[in-house]
Specification:
With 337 residues, the protein is of the alpha/beta class. It has two domains: 3-115 and 236-329, Rossmann fold (3-Layer(aba) Sandwich); 128-233, DNA polymerase, domain 1 (Orthogonal Bundle). Helix content is 40%, strand content 12%. The chain has helices at 13-19, 37-45, 58-67, 85-92, 94-99, 118-121, 148-154, 157-168, 173-184, 192-209, 223-233, 240-250, 264-277, 310-315; strands at 26-30, 49-55, 75-79, 107-113, 256-261, 298-300, 323-329. α8 crosses α11 (223-233) and α12 (240-250) packs across α13. The mean pLDDT is 91. It is globular, with a radius of gyration of 21 Å. It contains 14 helices and seven strands. The structure holds S-adenosylmethionine. S-adenosylmethionine (SAM) binds at residues 8, 10, 32, 34-38, 54-57, 60, 81-83, 113, 115-117, 140.
């Protein structure tokens, strides 16, 4: 599959370039390479940098490799979960580091553009979208085991309700879970549209029961449940806070970390991880002494997250929910420059 077969408009592209404006050499790690839009812009604007692009989706890696081939050895890819980055850098995969010729370069910037790409959403067989029918898969990495169908057809009603509520913040989670469990008694739920229709029925039933009119402008009733399933299948929030701390440790002094998130659960994790890395104590107030080990390692460059301009949201509706937070590692002496 070539990059030209798919399209993904990178969100907050100008803002990411601005966030990394102080970086002119060394290594940039794009932890969520996708189709390589951010990476391409960074490689084009900064001729003395090298870039390592990581993605857990082999199709994305292949597309980005085709698209960015012109950058030669300045651009390298690695197929893995970005949460493996500390191991890769610590030399547990020295072959990768040496082979990719990046071992001696200081890491000057790390980018995370979380979530799914338009390529993943727009490919019905991947099962991410309720707009087009396909198998309930949702795995970003095919080598990983559990699919969305496995969860839908095996979790208990209570487990489903909790998952949909926790990862989807869906108020109708209990109704949806009941509808799923009732429906799968007849036959397993296998496709995206089958699930989306069933969720719509459950949400509409709840609205009617509560005496509310159905709002024609509401978001699609399946949006939150699909988000919840995707997060669960790909364990998207697991150890994200820990990874942000590790990414900061990997950065060279004055190196920058930029994270784009797409929903409040992610953004909250990023915000708190930055706060902790900026030295804010996380201990409960009742403790007389700090035991959390908070140490000032960064300064946050975005007091409030950066969001897309009106022009961007018009041309790229996906950018509507994007939030960018940037921090900079303070130098070794702990003195800000
Ligand atoms: C929003 S897209 C990135 C788009 C990219 N910035 C661009 O401009 O083309 C997110 C990508 O991150 C990948 N991804 C999500 N979580 C990941 C993880 N934990 N490890 C590695 N890749 C991940 C997805 O497979 C997807 O390709």
């Amino acid at each position: 599959m070539s990059a030209t077969s798919f399209f993904h408009r990178s969100v907050l592209l100008d803002e990411v370039l601005k966030a990394f404006e102080t970086i002119s050499d060394g290594l940039i790690i794009d932890c969520t390479l996708g189709l390589g839009g951010h990476s391409e812009a960074l490689l084009s604007h900064k001729e003395n940098i090298s870039l390592l692009g990581i993605d857990r989706d082999l199709v994305a890696i292949k597309c980005a490799e085709d698209r960015l081939a012109a950058f030669g050895k300045r651009f390298q890819t690695h197929h893995s979960d970005f949460r493996d980055l500390p191991n890769i850098i610590a030399g547990k995969s020295m072959d990768i580091i040496a082979e990719k010729n990046i071992e001696k370069q200081p890491i000057k910037a790390i980018l995370l553009d979380l979530g799914v790409s338009s390529m993943q959403l727009d490919t019905p067989t991947r099962g991410f979208s309720f707009q087009q029918d396909g198998p309930l898969d949702m795995r970003m990495d095919f080598s990983q085991g559990e699919t969305a169908a496995d969860i839908i057809n095996s979790f208990s009603e209570e487990e489903l309700a909790n998952l949909i509520y926790e990862y989807g913040e869906e108020p109708a989670s209990r109704h949806i879970a009941k509808q799923i469990v009732d429906s799968r008694e007849t036959k397993p739920i296998e496709t995206t549209v089958e699930l989306a229709n069933l969720i719509t029925r459950a949400v509409n039933y709840r609205e009617r029961k509560q005496g509310r009119k159905i709002d024609p402008n509401r978001i699609h009733p399946a949006t939150r449940t699909f988000q919840a399933l995707r997060i669960a299948v790909n364990r998207e929030l697991t150890n994200l806070d820990k990874f942000i701390g590790q990414a900061i440790d990997l950065l060279a002094p004055e190196g920058r970390l930029a994270v784009i998130s797409f929903h409040s659960l992610e953004d909250r994790i990023v915000k708190n991880a930055y706060r902790f890395a900026a030295g804010a104590c996380q201990c409960p107030l009742r403790l007389p002494l700090c035991v959390c080990g908070a140490k000032e390692k960064v300064r946050t460059l975005t007091k409030k997250p950066l969001v897309a301009t009106d022009i961007e949201t018009k041309t790229n509706p996906r950018s509507r929910s994007a939030k960018l937070r940037v921090c900079e590692k303070i130098n070794k002496l702990g003195i800000e420059t």
